[in-house]
Inverse folding.
């Protein structure tokens, strides 16, 4: 029997610490657990001053709002569900989160049209049953800066051999229940990076 989803999540650190974000009852919506988020931002060094961050499958917005709370200069939340996007905008207005923007868009299509190499950090937390992991990783590797970070939540562990052709290397990994949390780095001068920049 599946555990019930929380109706809200709390921002863990930064200027909006302990602020709550609503969690809608939507298929595939699965907020990143508090313990995993805390570990992730510890991996990242806690503060993200000046970073440009993309939360590609925003959902509850827990990852993107956490990044903005911790000093990111620009945070863009992509969410294709109009009701969820509206809820994210309500939270943005309530918290006066001026560095955060919400766009109702398909994440893969948006990243395909985005200028390459413009984010220090990309969050990927797509629905586990949507078959999006490989396409999302390839798209994120293209829009992240060399030596930047891509965070992936998945229902299995991705190996170094799978990630190498995308120009990604494993920086940290943990398993929490059914969730595999990967913090990946974009390899500098990888073939995938050079191809995306038109050098090969």
């Amino acid at each position: 029997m599946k555990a019930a989803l929380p109706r809200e999540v709390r921002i863990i650190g930064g200027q909006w610490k302990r602020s709550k974000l609503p969690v809608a009852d939507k298929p595939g919506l699965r907020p990143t657990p508090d313990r995993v988020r805390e570990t992730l931002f510890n991996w990242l060094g806690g503060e993200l001053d000046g970073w440009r961050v993309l939360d590609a499958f925003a959902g509850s917005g827990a990852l993107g709002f956490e990044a903005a709370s911790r000093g990111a200069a620009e945070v863009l939340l992509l969410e294709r569900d109009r009701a969820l996007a509206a809820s994210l905008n309500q939270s943005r207005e309530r918290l006066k989160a001026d560095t955060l923007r919400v766009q109702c868009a398909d994440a893969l299509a948006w990243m395909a049209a985005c200028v390459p190499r413009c984010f220090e950090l990309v969050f990927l937390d797509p629905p586990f049953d949507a078959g999006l992991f490989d396409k999302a990783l390839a798209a994120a590797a293209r829009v992240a800066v060399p030596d930047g970070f891509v965070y992936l939540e998945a229902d299995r562990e991705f190996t170094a051999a799978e990630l190498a052709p995308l120009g990604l290397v494993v920086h940290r990994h943990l398993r929490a229940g059914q969730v595999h949390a990967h913090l990946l780095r974009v390899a500098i001068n990888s073939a995938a990076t050079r191809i995306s920049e038109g050098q090969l």
In short: The first strand starts at residue 8 and ends at 10. The radius of gyration is 16 Å.
